[in-house]
Amino acid sequence: KFKEIYDNPDATDKFWLGHTYKRWNSFGKDIPIENMLKLDIPILIIASGKDENSPILGLDYVKLEFTRKEKRNLTYKVYPNCDHWFNDQKMKVNKMDEMIEYVIKWIEKES
What we know:
alpha+beta
């Protein structure tokens, strides 16, 4: 399917998974990890281990690349049992407030 999308990059009359080919094609214009690796400012990535909307493997790859390139400006925090909305699937509690508190403390530390 991707070949068909890239063969018709501006098509607004062809769809895949509810979105036009033009939209799908736009996702490949910039490679976010390459841009992130150029930064020297502190970066925080928070991931949920059970997030079905944003699978954690892609974010694990970011951490791996930062480590491989010996970049030290990435903080990678994982909530292993949480879903996309920070509901802990194991403990049956919401960790959104805990996550927000973590972000606030991280910002204060990095400021």
